[in-house]
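note to self: dont lose this again. the chain is below, predicted strucutre after it. 125 aa total, dont forget to put it in the shared folder this time
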Amino acid sequence: MKTPRRGKASLSPARAALWDALTLEKTMTGVLSHLVYWAGLGVIAMVGFGVVGASVGVALREGDIVGWLLAAPVFVTGLLVVAALALIWRSFCEFYVVIFKIGEDLSALRKTAEAESAANRNRLV
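---
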Protein backbone atom coordinates (compact mmCIF):
# COMPACT_ATOMS: atom_id res chain seq x y z
CA MET A 1 0.00 0.00 0.00
CA LYS A 2 1.33 3.38 -0.97
CA THR A 3 1.51 5.99 1.76
CA PRO A 4 0.31 9.49 0.93
CA ARG A 5 3.06 11.98 0.27
CA ARG A 6 3.51 14.81 2.66
CA GLY A 7 4.66 18.26 1.69
CA LYS A 8 3.71 20.92 -0.77
CA ALA A 9 3.47 18.58 -3.77
CA SER A 10 0.44 16.79 -2.31
CA LEU A 11 -1.53 20.01 -1.73
CA SER A 12 -4.16 21.45 -4.05
CA PRO A 13 -3.14 24.64 -5.89
CA ALA A 14 -5.20 26.85 -3.56
CA ARG A 15 -3.76 25.21 -0.45
CA ALA A 16 -0.25 25.38 -1.91
CA ALA A 17 -0.65 29.14 -2.49
CA LEU A 18 -1.93 29.57 1.07
CA TRP A 19 0.95 27.47 2.39
CA ASP A 20 3.47 29.57 0.45
CA ALA A 21 1.97 32.77 1.88
CA LEU A 22 1.92 31.47 5.45
CA THR A 23 5.45 30.05 5.36
CA LEU A 24 6.87 33.05 3.45
CA GLU A 25 8.07 30.82 0.61
CA LYS A 26 6.78 33.39 -1.87
CA THR A 27 6.82 37.09 -1.20
CA MET A 28 4.30 39.76 -2.10
CA THR A 29 6.86 42.53 -2.00
CA GLY A 30 6.97 43.08 -5.77
CA VAL A 31 3.53 44.63 -5.93
CA LEU A 32 3.82 46.20 -2.51
CA SER A 33 7.14 47.87 -3.29
CA HIS A 34 5.66 49.44 -6.44
CA LEU A 35 2.73 50.82 -4.46
CA VAL A 36 5.03 52.24 -1.79
CA TYR A 37 7.28 53.76 -4.46
CA TRP A 38 4.42 55.52 -6.25
CA ALA A 39 2.89 56.68 -2.97
CA GLY A 40 6.24 58.16 -1.94
CA LEU A 41 6.59 59.91 -5.29
CA GLY A 42 3.11 61.32 -4.78
CA VAL A 43 4.13 62.76 -1.42
CA ILE A 44 7.30 64.21 -2.95
CA ALA A 45 5.22 65.77 -5.76
CA MET A 46 2.92 67.35 -3.17
CA VAL A 47 5.97 68.83 -1.43
CA GLY A 48 7.09 70.20 -4.79
CA PHE A 49 3.70 71.81 -5.37
CA GLY A 50 3.90 73.27 -1.87
CA VAL A 51 7.31 74.80 -2.58
CA VAL A 52 6.08 76.33 -5.84
CA GLY A 53 2.96 77.65 -4.13
CA ALA A 54 4.94 79.10 -1.23
CA SER A 55 7.42 80.87 -3.46
CA VAL A 56 4.69 82.31 -5.69
CA GLY A 57 2.74 83.32 -2.59
CA VAL A 58 5.72 85.19 -1.17
CA ALA A 59 6.28 86.93 -4.50
CA LEU A 60 2.63 88.00 -4.82
CA ARG A 61 2.33 89.06 -1.18
CA GLU A 62 5.29 91.43 -1.42
CA GLY A 63 4.13 92.79 -4.76
CA ASP A 64 7.40 94.43 -5.78
CA ILE A 65 10.82 93.32 -6.99
CA VAL A 66 11.95 92.44 -3.46
CA GLY A 67 9.26 89.75 -3.27
CA TRP A 68 10.40 88.21 -6.53
CA LEU A 69 14.03 88.33 -5.37
CA LEU A 70 13.06 86.53 -2.19
CA ALA A 71 10.91 83.96 -4.01
CA ALA A 72 13.41 82.99 -6.71
CA PRO A 73 16.00 81.33 -4.43
CA VAL A 74 13.24 79.55 -2.48
CA PHE A 75 11.76 78.28 -5.72
CA VAL A 76 15.06 77.02 -7.16
CA THR A 77 16.24 75.51 -3.88
CA GLY A 78 12.88 73.85 -3.34
CA LEU A 79 12.90 72.26 -6.77
CA LEU A 80 16.46 71.02 -6.28
CA VAL A 81 15.51 69.50 -2.92
CA VAL A 82 12.45 67.83 -4.47
CA ALA A 83 14.61 66.40 -7.27
CA ALA A 84 17.13 65.11 -4.73
CA LEU A 85 14.33 63.57 -2.64
CA ALA A 86 12.96 61.82 -5.72
CA LEU A 87 16.39 60.34 -6.50
CA ILE A 88 16.97 59.26 -2.90
CA TRP A 89 13.49 57.71 -2.71
CA ARG A 90 14.11 55.84 -5.98
CA SER A 91 17.43 54.45 -4.75
CA PHE A 92 15.90 53.50 -1.39
CA CYS A 93 13.10 51.55 -3.09
CA GLU A 94 15.49 49.93 -5.57
CA PHE A 95 17.66 48.79 -2.68
CA TYR A 96 14.77 46.92 -1.10
CA VAL A 97 13.71 45.42 -4.44
CA VAL A 98 17.27 44.15 -4.97
CA ILE A 99 17.36 42.64 -1.48
CA PHE A 100 14.11 40.76 -2.11
CA LYS A 101 15.30 39.64 -5.57
CA ILE A 102 18.45 38.22 -3.97
CA GLY A 103 16.24 36.28 -1.57
CA GLU A 104 14.18 34.89 -4.47
CA ASP A 105 17.34 33.93 -6.36
CA LEU A 106 18.74 32.15 -3.30
CA SER A 107 15.46 30.28 -2.92
CA ALA A 108 15.62 29.16 -6.56
CA LEU A 109 19.26 28.06 -6.11
CA ARG A 110 18.29 26.09 -3.00
CA LYS A 111 15.50 24.29 -4.88
CA THR A 112 17.86 23.47 -7.73
CA ALA A 113 20.50 22.14 -5.35
CA GLU A 114 17.90 20.02 -3.55
CA ALA A 115 16.70 18.58 -6.86
CA GLU A 116 20.26 17.78 -7.94
CA SER A 117 21.07 16.12 -4.64
CA ALA A 118 17.86 14.04 -4.87
CA ALA A 119 18.81 13.00 -8.41
CA ASN A 120 22.31 12.03 -7.24
CA ARG A 121 20.83 9.96 -4.40
CA ASN A 122 18.51 8.18 -6.80
CA ARG A 123 21.41 7.35 -9.12
CA LEU A 124 23.40 5.87 -6.26
CA VAL A 125 20.53 3.65 -5.11
